[in-house]
Design brief:
It comes from Acetonema longum DSM 6540. The protein is an alpha/beta fold and 337 residues long. The protein is 39% helix and 14% strand. The chain has twelve helices and ten strands. It is globular and about 50 Å long. The relative contact order is 0.14. The mean pLDDT is 95.
Amino acid sequence: MDYQPPKFDLSLVDRETWSIFRYRAFMPLEGEYWREISLGEGMTPIVPFGEDVLLKMDFFMPTLSFKDRGAAVLISHCKAIGVESVVQDSSGNAGNSVAAYCGNAGIDCEIFVPEGTSPKKIDMIKAHKSRINVVPGSRDHCADVCRNKVVKEGKYYANHVYNPFFYQGTKTYIYEIYEQLRRIPANIVLPLGNGTLVIGAIKGLEELLSSGVIEKMPQIILVQSEYCDPFIQAVQTKANKAAMKTPLKPTMAEGIAIGAPMRSEEILEYIYKYAIHLIAAPEDRILEARMALAARGIYCEHTTAANYAAYLKYCEVYGKTSDCLIPMCGAGLKSDH
C-alpha cells in the first residue's frame, strides 16, 4: 500500500468519535463507510499492574480481542469497494472479528479455523452468521486450504496477515497509548505469531518517530511460544527468513502457534533494525500467569497469559524491567476449554 499519513498530531484526532476512527485523519479510508461498520472498537484503558507493569486492556472490544482494530478498517474498506463475500483463515480471534464486522456490514463471510481452536471462538463465529470450516491439521495447513479456495473461486481474501488495511487498524494501538499516557513506555511487549499486532505497532511507532512526537523507539519485546518459535530460531542463526517449524507439541498459546509465518522477512527486518528482543513463554508457566492475572480481576485467554509469563521470564533473564506495557489481547472466556 502506497500511503503516507500526515504527521501525527493530537490536534487532528477527532475527540468526539469514541472508537479507533477518531484517528481517521491518519488512515486511508474511502468515504464515510466506517460510520456504519464501527462497533465502538478501541479506546481501551491502560491499568497499572504493580509498580513495573501497565496492561493495555484490548480485550475490552466488541468481539473480546485486539483483532477488532484491524477488522473494523478492513471491512470498512471492503464495503467501500463493493465486496459482497469474503473468506478468511484464523486461529480464532481474527476470524471472529471479521465475521462480526461482516455481519454488521451485510457482507457474506466464510471462516476457516484449524482443529483444536477453542470451541468458544467457534461458537462466536457461528453466532455472527458466518459459515465456518474446521480444518484438520495445523494452523499453517488451515491457511493453505483457505487460500486454495481463494484461488479457485476468486473470493476476496479478508486476511489479517496479508491485507494492508488490517495494519491500518492495528497501528491505532500505539496512537491510543500515546494519547492516553502522552508518552510511550520504555518497554513494549507484543505477541508474535503472524505478527498482526507487531507490524501495526511498529508502523504506529515509526509514524510517531517521523512526526517528532517521540525521540526514540522503545525496547520492543516479542513473545513466542516455547513449543513454536520460528523467529527465535531464525535470530539465533541470523537468518533473513523464518524456516518452517512444526510445533514440538500442542501449546496453550494457540494464537501465536504459527510454524510458517507469512511475513517473516519483513518482521525479521524490523527485529534487526530496532534491536528487538525475543523471549519464549514457558509453557508450564502460562496457567500460573493466567491465575496471577485472574486473582487481580483480569481474566484473559491462554495466549494473552503467555505474554505475562514471558515478561516474568524476561525479567529473570535481563533483570528488573520497569515501565513495561503488556497487551491483554483476548478475554478469558474465549479459551476455557
